[in-house]
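We now fix the convention by which a protein and its fold are recorded. These numbers are not coordinates but entries in a learned vocabulary of local backbone shapes. A record is reproduced here so that you can trace the correspondence yourselves:
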Amino acid sequence: MTNITVVGDAPEIDEIKRVVQLYVDGFQGGREKLEEAFHKDAWIFAVDAGGKLATDLISDRFERWAASHRKVKSRFIAVTQAGEVASVLLGFDNSDNLADSWVDVIALVKVDGIWKITNKTAAHSTRAAWAKPNS
């Protein structure tokens, strides 16, 4: 868990990270990975570089995200688990263009033994203070 802050005990950190990684990997043509990672009713709230807020049902973005083939990598900054809820502070770094990177706060819930992302709140990296990627 190099460079990851873990708050409290996170016994299922590997499974939580696996689910969040499915979301990241979905940008390389993996709609099925996005469907596995997100709850069907998950929402996104995202503040772009200009400060504009966009909100959507995440499943409405699956097709566009999977078709983008963006070369992104995950940077797990912090993970918190409290029983069957968890959160991840994630650097979503665009390998081709760091200026198009994001920092996400991802909420997850475990239902019937399966972790699902229920919410993604994101800020463009220019608005992410200390959490933005190193240039």
Q: What stands out?
A: The chain has a mean pLDDT of 91.
